[in-house]
TrEMBL record, chains A, B:
The lineage of its organism: Eukaryota, Metazoa, Chordata, Craniata, Vertebrata. This is Protein S100. It comes from the Eukaryota. Signal peptide: none annotated. Keywords: Calcium, Metal-binding, Repeat. The gene is s100a1_0.
Length: 107, 107
């Protein structure tokens, strides 16, 4: 997929472009090119979030994420559902970093 | 704020790190260092999203975004509220790109 790019994107615009690029890198492989099938979701989780989500080779783990994300039960994860997952993970990471940063000061 | 960095972050991990960095770049300037005050929100909107949101110098525009985002009415935007804004904007951008990409094929 080609995409118009800002000439001098800000850090935040850059992050938003990376989110869009990541989704379409996997969503285009099979079936509806604008949604993630179960196989595409598994590939994305393994390649992009292996450090966060552990071993996504585990079929049950992929099924659980798919079940949690696929709010309209069509067996596909659309871009909005993907953003909800990434947003929730980013909030969790931020909370972790804040605790990590506060700890040395409190000791 | 210092932050642990993955040694070889994936594209998605990189995007998540940029979101966290962007928020803390502005939230630390005054008051609670983990929330955006009205002034910090205005600075972030102007510097990071000027291309998307138009002229955030407009006080009414900043007040509207603050009113929409500040779901607990404490006059501050926390990280979760920030992620909801960025997520909604990213979904809107993605929709725009899909229309932009589909148009030449349909003609």
């Amino acid at each position: 997929m080609s995409m118009p790019k800002s000439e001098n994107p800000s850090t935040l615009e850059n992050a938003m472009q990376l989110l869009i690029q990541t989704f379409h890198k996997y969503s285009g492989n099979e079936g509806d090119k604008y949604t993630l099938s179960r196989a595409e979701l598994k590939e994305m989780l393994t390649a992009e979030l292996g450090n966060y989500l552990g071993n996504a080779q585990d079929k049950e783990a992929v099924d659980k994420v798919m079940g949690d994300l696929d709010s309209n039960n069509d067996g596909e994860v659309d871009f909005t559902e993907f953003i909800i997952l990434v947003g929730a993970l980013t909030v969790a990471c931020n909370d972790f970093f804040l605790e990590y940063n506060d700890k040395p000061e409190k000791k």
